[in-house]
């Protein structure tokens, strides 16, 4: 298994544990009759779907999609490492910023710092996915 794939998959497993832990806390809090702030539910959802699912899928896709040696002569035709590390760090740091900052910013208390951080998080996660697609696009072809 290539190094980059291991980083994506192991990071996805850490997000899975974190999403389940937060989900369990939310369930217990609800069981005791307290309501969960919407921003916490959003954090839980993104930890599960972006943190676990998207990281897991990207890691396996970079490993398993058909190689394209003409396009990517290094790494057995898999990818240029730089684009993949951009995907990894922008996706995970962007997500971490979101799940930490969004609950702090809610409800309706805009502060300059949170606005800047959430904007950075949005662009980082979008850039991560564009970097991934710029590789995956050329690997989806007949072998
Ligand atoms: C990969 C696993 C999981 C995924 C993808 C997931 C996804 C979601 C989503 C999409 C919501 C928002 C539902 C809505 O309000 O419309 C949600 C809410 C919630 N989840 Fe999870 N979840 C996962 C695991 C868990 C686990 C393991 C627990 C508890 C042990 C849990 C507890 C909760 C609770 C308490 C809510 C709030 C429900 C509400 O009052 O609206 N989740 N989850």
Model description:
With 143 residues, this protein is mainly alpha-helical. The chain has one domain (3-139). It is built from four helices and no strands. It has helices spanning 3-31, 38-64, 81-105, 112-136. The chain is elongated and about 60 Å long. The protein starts with a helix and ends in a 7-residue tail after the last helix. The mean pLDDT is 94. The structure holds protoporphyrin IX containing FE. The site of protoporphyrin IX containing FE (HEM) has 14 residues, from helix 1 and helix 2.
In a few lines, what is going on in this structure?
By secondary structure, the chain is mostly helical.
Keywords:
143 residues; mainly alpha; elongated
Question: How many DSSP helices?
Answer: 4
Range of strand content: under 5%
Largest sheet: none
What's the β-strand tally?
A: 0
Order of helices and strands: HHHH
Which bin fits the share of residues in helices? Answer: over 70%
Bound molecules: protoporphyrin IX containing FE
Distance between the termini: 20 Å
Query: Spans with pLDDT under 50 lasting ≥5 residues?
Result: none
Q: So what's the overall shape?
A: elongated
The total number of structural domains is 1
């Amino acid at each position: 298994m290539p190094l980059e794939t291991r980083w994506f998959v192991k990071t996805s497993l850490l997000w899975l544990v974190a999403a389940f832990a937060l989900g369990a806390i939310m369930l217990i809090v609800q069981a005791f009759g307290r309501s969960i702030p919407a921003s916490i539910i959003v954090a839980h959802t993104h930890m599960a779907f972006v943190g676990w699912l998207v990281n897991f899928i990207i890691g396996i896709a970079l490993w398993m999609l058909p190689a394209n040696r003409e396009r990517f002569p290094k790494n057995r035709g898999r990818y240029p490492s730089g684009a993949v590390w951009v995907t990894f760090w922008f996706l995970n740091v962007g997500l971490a910023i979101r799940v930490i900052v969004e609950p702090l910013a809610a409800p309706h208390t805009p502060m300059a710092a949170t606005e800047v951080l959430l904007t950075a998080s949005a662009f980082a996660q979008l850039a991560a996915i564009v970097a991934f697609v710029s590789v995956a696009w050329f690997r989806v072809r007949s072998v």
